[in-house]
Amino acid sequence: MSDQVDISNLIYEYARLIDLGDFAGIGDLFQRGKIIFKDSEQITEISGSKEIKELYEKTTRRYDDGTPRTHHATTNITLAINGNSAASSSYYTVFQQLDDFPLQPIITGFYEDTFLFEDKKWHFQTREIKVSLVGDISQHLLIPLT
Q: Residue ranges per domain, the chain?
């Protein structure tokens, strides 16, 4: 595969893991990197597989099927590769539906990512998550967004 496909697959894998409720998998995805959450009033920076897994467990609601009952759509990916490093930006839209919660977009924003090529493979270095629009996230997150 090409570098562009490999990096895009990492971006899409993050969305799949969240929708599966596989927070240990998200931690593993960032074993060599960190996640930075930015909203209007605060910045949170988390690194380490265990710490990232625990953050998602503490902040994201999962239902009886083990998933958050969401669908993350990642679009508008731009990618710049420079040797063994790369940077990308992309949009995300999170949809959710429950028995008493009709299908709707609940939050949108964008990712700013950096990647490193090490050990013959691309890895996340950083993922900065920025929020643009917030709908009804009451059935998704266990914490309030500021």
A: 3-134
- Topology adopted by domain 3-134: Nuclear Transport Factor 2; Chain: A, (3.10.450)
Question: pLDDT tens string for the chain (146 positions)?
Answer: 699 999 999 999 999 999 999 999 999 999 999 999 876 677 889 999 999 999 999 999 999 999 999 999 999 999 999 999 999 999 999 999 999 999 999 999 999 999 999 999 999 999 999 999 999 999 999 988 76
CB 14 within 8 A of CB 127: yes
Q: Are 108 and 132 in contact (CB under 8 A)?
A: yes
Residue type, 31: Q
Q: Distance between CA 61 and CA 56 in Å, rounded?
A: 9
Q: Determine whether 49 is exposed, middle or buried from the number of CB atoms within 10 Å of its CB (0-12, 13-18, 19+).
A: middle
CA distances from 73 to 12, 13, 49, 100 (A): 9, 11, 23, 22
Amino acid (1-letter code) at residue 92: Y
Write the CB contacts of 51 (distance below 8 Å, at least 6 apart in sequence): 27
